[in-house]
Write a structure and sequence with these properties.
The protein is built from 16 helices and 15 strands. The protein is an alpha/beta fold. Helix 5 runs parallel beside helix 13 and helix 6 packs across helix 12.
């Protein structure tokens, strides 16, 4: 007997979905030795804010997959938008000045909706690719306008900007650097703007923001302002634990950047399209980007697409360089692919027609109030934080001292497993912070059901913690 690949096949092929997954699949962000023993949760279908595994078990998706399924898991309009476009023009590229209507329409719609005056839109397939593209744009621009030394990039510890080599160098999380030989040279990081853990005792948010701005100023001066090109930031840090910046943070940061002629790049991959209560996180936090990166909810994640919006200053640098060389030597086969672009266009129309901002204002306020009312005083909870339709509950071993659990105990990860048993898919992040970013279409009744399942799971893990007497770090 031979396998379809032609190799000899001596052992019986695995039969179940889980067994075949263990046998053949390499998963992102997974402990693969543990995976060999425990296997996957195989999701087969979705409806609204819920997904169902291949055994028929139902789950509420508390993080919209990966912060991204903003319109839930069964929007027929998006399905039809894809099918209609596939019948009309299933593929075309954007190289060498080729174009098509979905690319043009979506570019126009994004420029019209931008939080600051933007000039042009470039499309990619993921947030990582978009951030990588923005890095290349900045380096290219500075070479083109005669500033070849102005190339260093500054991001933040616990920031997340993707996993390609350059984007992962911006990312400030240890798991994205260890064993990968990252970050690359020229990438730097400043402090996490988390008042709960990092402010000096008794200092206000405003005072903490001033200290962080002074740190950035000192960093740019130490590196040499003539060598620092851009500062990267999420409006609200996502994978780092849903960290909201202290009051006055971004205005003070931007004053430093303008002083040294350093570009402000805003990573809106998670925060864009109403997640924070405004169309853009930049509007919620008072940021004026020179470059804006978005993805995920751009198409409600029904198909992969991301975008980079650049202002006129950046565009003119790219135009100058491409004129000198004869082309701008960057792009992807699927940049602005007509089918994802058509789905993104329909997604933006749905947001408008649903008055998504009004919905998020109402249900987001309910989510925030319920998170605090139910969990702020829980013995395992140190901080509840969030705004709009994004939040987090951080677990601690000692509420008084804000001490976290030893990471080796994996309390947050173990809580996600208990959550799955109770029918809620959770996301554990840095410092055992459990993130909440449900589909934007969630109702107040579904918020209650989601938090009931989370609360039951939290109480169950507390019993385990007390039984094992887990130590704080």
């Amino acid at each position: 007997m031979r396998h379809p690949s032609g190799r000899p096949c001596h052992d019986p092929a695995p039969q179940s979905n889980a067994a075949r997954d263990i046998a053949y699949a390499l998963h992102p962000y997974t402990d693969h030795k543990a995976h060999l023993e425990t296997g996957p949760v195989v999701i087969s279908r979705g409806k609204g804010v819920r997904v169902y595994d291949d055994q028929g078990k139902e789950y509420i998706e508390s993080v919209a997959g990966l912060w991204c399924a903003s319109l839930g898991f069964d929007n027929e309009r998006l399905v039809q938008a894809a099918a209609t476009q596939m019948r009309k023009l299933p593929f075309y590229h954007a190289f060498t000045a080729k174009s098509h209507e979905p690319l043009i329409d979506l570019s126009e719609m994004l420029i019209e909706r931008a939080p600051a005056k933007m000039s042009k839109v470039f499309f990619a397939n993921s947030g990582s690719e978009a951030n990588d593209s923005a890095i290349k744009m900045i380096w290219y621009m500075n070479n083109a306008i005669g500033r070849p030394e102005k190339k260093k990039l500054i991001a933040r510890i616990k920031g997340y900007h993707g996993i390609t080599l350059a984007a992962a160098s911006l990312t400030g999380l240890p798991v994205n650097h260890k064993l990968f030989d990252l970050p690359l040279p020229g990438f730097h990081h400043v402090s996490t703007p988390h008042h709960y853990h990092n402010a000096l005792p008794g200092r206000s948010e405003e005072a903490f923001a001033t200290r962080l701005a002074e740190e950035l100023d000192a960093k740019i001066i130490a590196e040499g302002p003539e060598t620092v090109a851009a500062f990267w930031a999420e409006p609200i840090m996502g994978a780092g634990g849903v960290i909201l910046p202290p009051a006055t943070y971004f205005p003070k940061i931007q004053a430093v950047l303008k002083k040294h002629d350093v570009l402000m790049v805003v990573d809106e991959v998670i925060c864009g399209f109403w997640r924070t209560g405004s169309y853009w996180g930049s509007q919620t936090l008072g940021i004026e980007p020179d470059i804006l990166v978005c993805a995920k909810a751009l198409s409600a994640s029904y198909l992969p697409i991301s975008a980079v919006m650049v202002n006129e200053k950046v565009f003119q640098g790219i135009a100058e360089g491409s004129s000198t060389i004869g082309t701008w030597g960057h792009g992807f086969t699927y940049s602005g692919h007509p089918v994802p672009a058509a789905v993104a266009i329909e997604t933006l129309k749905i947001y408008d027609e649903m008055n998504m901002g009004d919905h998020v204002a109402k249900v987001g306020a309910y989510l925030q109030a319920q998170l605090r009312a139910r969990f702020a005083d829980h013995p395992l909870v140190g901080e509840v934080r969030g705004t709009g339709m994004i939040g987090a509950v951080e677990l601690v071993a000692d509420k008084a001292t804000k001490r976290n659990f030893d990471p080796a105990q994996k309390v947050g990860i173990r809580l996600t497993k208990v959550g799955e048993q109770n029918g809620v898919i959770l996301r554990s992040m840095a410092n055992d912070s459990l993130g909440f970013s449900p589909p934007l279409i969630i109702t107040e009744e579904e918020v209650d059901e989601m938090l009931n399942r989370f609360g039951k799971s939290l109480d169950e893990i507390m019993v385990t913690v007390r039984r094992e007497s887990l130590a704080a770090v």
